[in-house]
Fold:
Amino acid sequence: MKKKLLAGLLVALLARSAFAFDPFQIKDIRVEGIQRTEAGTVFSYLPVKVGDTMTDEKAAAAIKALFATGFFKDVRLEIDREVLVVVLEERPAIASLEFTGLKAFKPEDLKKSLREVGLAESRIFDRAMVERAEQELKRQYLAQGHYAVQITTTITPLERNRVGVNFAVNEGDIAKIRQINIIGAGAISEADLLDLLVLRTPGWLTWYTKNDQYSKQKLSGDLETLRSHYLDRGYLEFNIESTQVSISPDKQDIYITININEGEKYSVSSVKLAGQLLLPEAELTKLVQIKPGEVFSRERMTETTKAISERLGNEGYAFANVNAAPELDKEKRQVAFTVFIDPGRRVYVRRINVTGNTRTRDEVVRREMRQAESGWYDGDKINKSRTRVDRLGYFDEVTVETPPVAGTTDQVDMEVKVKEKPTGNIMLGAGFSSADKFSVSGSVQQQNLFGSGKHVGVQVSTSAANKVYSLSHTDPYFTVDGVSQGFDIYYRKTDTSTLAVGSFGSKSFGGGGRWGVPIAEDDYLNFGLSFDRTKLTVDTNSPLRYQDYVTRFGASSNTLLGTAGWQKDGRDSLLVTTSGVYRRAVLEMAMPGSTATYVKATYQHQHFFPLDRKLTLALNGEIGLAKSYGNKELPFFKNFYAGGIGSVRGFDSNSLGPRDPATDEALGGDKRLIGNAELLFPVPGMGRDNSMRLSVFADAGSVWGYDNKFSLGSLRYSAGVALAWNSPMGPLKFSFANPFNKKAEDKVQRLQFQMGSVF
Structure:
């Protein structure tokens, strides 16, 4: 068969005259040389079809179109009489993509990053693409500090014109920061400055924080930290002259040198307000955080402009522009500021959008909004909305943005972005005592059932001392205005013979309902009514007081219990609290007609003080009082107890207070006082990461019985250190405490911990 070559490769595109032919009508098209590509795919890219008149221009266009697909290494067009023959040589396809020697990454993570640069299984093999893939892999490793990484690529031909690509990785050791030098420090010591940085030389926690591995982003943050530290202390002309980062020849050690110029220290000579003062000048002047005569502080000046902007924002001026212009007197080393105020236009919120809530329903977030759609912009209400959503405890992150609406000058949208976290909790508590005693308890809770915001809790405990089976449910928005409703059902079997308290046994079952009514933004009233039936068991090993109670009032008791309470929660966050106040008061009363009639009241007050960006002082105080009425006696199983991780650390759980003279067991009492002071701070080496916090604490407290008068002299004291970690598997708490004024009868429990898991 005689064939005439029409065109081939680029020659057809560049040298038309060399392969000129007479036009002809295409009666058929035949494709040759393909193995994986379907003929229909080739036809779809051809700019000609059967019946068309073939010309030199169309031949060149066909070759160009087929090359543009990237599927083919060579393309030729031939004529067999009046049949157009398309002869193709396919590029090989990638059949497999494999890695060897991986330790720092998972293969699927690297495959995902290579897919973004065009290299993936089933795609067409391209040598240039492989080179780009090698560079991407090296970039990934360099970002992790593997500066000595070596990558060898092997291409293996396979049947059906396919190839296997293998990346052999020699990761090498991670390069560590061996030295950081700050040149030019004088007013502030280099050691103090180095302590401010996130990047640091290897330490006892850097295996976890990775802060001994160089990161350009972390270095940029550290440079800004240095700048802020000097500007907050009056060094208005502070400047970072240069930064050098070098690596040792073996690519194992990194050296960082920061050259700074401190400049002179300035004080403030005056602060004036100028511009459009929509509010009384006296009111705005009160918002100025920095006063004449003080050392200049950029932080306090920033707080000043922020406070004025926020105050204007509360009036609807969302885009208020407040700037402080300095005037330097270098001879006197003073600076005068003029704060220019431009309130802009008053705006309103057009729409509130909630994103990121893949499980939680929109309404659960929206009902916490205090800013209304179509209402005037109010900065306080927007901040309050964010705080309330964060306080739900359903989200790891809550951010609120107010971007302007395109095409308008007086509208913004409120974008509420949340990042959900697991809201189910499996809590386990455990402790070690001086007598090598070990105890465990557990519960299961779901705070956001099916994304509805409703709470469900199940407690199942089968320890030797307590067997508890309980179910609780709470609907925080039983009504649209925030009235909550819930119920509790429980069965409890207790045997205290293995504990430090007076031995007795009891079986209780009961249940009841409760309601919560909001009376202010952060204030709630709570009410409850429940029924309890308890059967007691005492023996000759029980304290005489317990035996006498059963003799006088019987082993079985029926109680109709009414409760009333008040709660005010002004904490900034439930996860990592740094400021705010929490107060709670509860009154519990056994109604007339119950086997035992009594009144029990408790009050708790917590206050969190942010001392600076890292330190938080947490104070907690609790008091409890109980008293019987109607010629009855307070049931001993309703006594207060103290001691342990929830009250006075360093003492065995529930071991403080009156003791039985015969058995030396704790009896509890009708009066309880607890006080705790705790200084919380990030773990050294963790930088600004608050997921793990250390604390030093001091605890005080005790319990007084019916025959004991309240006396501060009988308080027990302890002090120690604690660690709280919001770990990936849940919250963990550890404490080690040493009692100060331990008495001979006290039971000591120095090491205590609490652990949990989330699902």
